[in-house]
Structures are given as structure tokens and as C-alpha cells.
Amino acid sequence: MFRVEVLVLLFGICALASGRGRRWQSSGALGALTCNGKPAKGVLLKLYDHDSITKNSQMAETKTDGNGYFLLSGRAKHWTTINPRLYIYHDCNDDLPCQRRISIKINRRFVNDGIRATKLHPAGTIELSGKYPGEKRDCIH
User: Fold this and answer.
1) What pTM did the predictor assign?
2) Residue 48, Cβ neighbours under 10 Å: how many?
3) Which InterPro entries match (predicted)?
4) Residue 2: which pLDDT band, with cuts at 50, 70 and 90?
């Protein structure tokens, strides 16, 4: 009996190490950014799969267009449901070194299986001039 348990354990470890059982999942967001009511042009946005144990995985990156609009989507391969977060790096009303970073958690209902996001988080218009809970400064991104 002990040998069977050891074999099952070894098989499980090999399956985890090989990546079997992981599945492609996708998510994304769209919206607009403003600074003092005007379009925030060229603002960097990144989409990450936020992990509690391992390093966060970047899924996508873009910048806002001339009207402050953005659309980004990405994918990650994971055993469990991904935890997407949208990071916004900006200098609105800011003269300090580095950039302000806002993190927005994307609800799991905007995660789908597959390599193409079919459900995008509607972020709406985000005014960057205010202070946000959990806002940080980021010099290396």
C-alpha cells in the first residue's frame, strides 16, 4: 500500500513540474484616464496575474492614446483561476521622483478560459488627480 501512495505522490509532483493541468486564462480592461478633467495621454498601464506565493506575472502592457483611452488584454497559464490586476503608472499632479502607481483588482467574472479575452473589465473614466487607497510609488516598472 505504501508503494502505491509513493507512486501517486511522485506522479503528482511530475505533473506539477511539467505544467500539466495548467490552463490558459485571459482577462482585460478598457476605459479612459483623465488628469484634472483632461485626457491623460501616454500613461503606462500593465495587466498582471497577481500571485500570493509566486512572483506576479505580467500579462499585457499598453499606453493610453491621445484621448486618454486604453484597451488591454492578456493571458496566463495557471492551475487555479488567475487574479488579474490593472496597474496604472502616472505623474498626474505629481512632482516627486518615480511615478504614482494605482492597482485595480479585476473581478474574476472578467476572467475566461482560453488565450483571447472575451470579457473585459469596464473601468470607465478614472480621474488620476485624486489619491487612491493602496496607492504606491514605483521607480522600476
Assistant:
1) 0.83
2) 22
3) Transthyretin-like, Transthyretin-like_sf
4) low
Number of domains in the chain: 1
Arithmetic mean of pLDDT, 71-85: 95
Q: Residue with C-alpha cell 497559464?
A: 77
Q: Which of 30, 36, 47 is nearest to 124 (CA)?
A: 30
- Label residue 24 exposed, middle or buried (CB < 10 Å: 0-12, 13-18, 19+): middle
Reduced to 3 states (helix: H, G, I; strand: E, B; else coil), residue 11 is helix
**Which one-letter amino acid corresponds to residue 86?**
L
Average pLDDT over residues 82-104: 96
Which residues constitute the domain of residue 93?
23-138
Rounded distance between C-alpha atoms, residue 60 and residue 64, angstroms: 13
Structural domain contains residue 77: yes
Rounded Cα distance, 42 and 96, in Å? 18
Within-domain flag for 131: yes
